[in-house]
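quick one, 162 residues, struct below
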Amino acid sequence: MDQLQSGIRITVRAVIIQAGNILLIKKDSPEDGIRYTLPGGALDAGETLHQAVIRECIEEINTAVVAHDVLHIADLFIPKLKPQPYTRHQLEVLIACQVPNDYIPSTGPEPDKHQVGVEWLALQDLADYTISPDFFSELLINLYSGEHQVYIGSAYTLKKTE
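---
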């Protein structure tokens, strides 16, 4: 493991499921191609988990959400290349959320890097898509089946990024 960065980055992700579909952000980049991920991002100083996930959803999916229970927590160790090789420790917190009944997927005013849209995907079809990070696909399918643990410890080491 490269030099471990001091401090832990806490991120929150919204898990929004309706009628067997999950709301995901669509991303596209030259290095990774098309992939999907949960809306969310880093917790700001002084924010609660719920405040952070609501803010991130306004920024990325153009709506406030109702935040409910924590569904899952994982430690990620993410290798970075710049400014010099290091590893970032990230605590990933997935929170059950609900969008308004009349919500139509749209990108918010402060989209994620490489975000090109917001889409509902059928949970049963997630294996047909590239979901980021990789372990999310199986996790999201199993979230409500009782076949997952809320805290799984270190999920894995991600590939190196800039």
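The mean pLDDT is 87.
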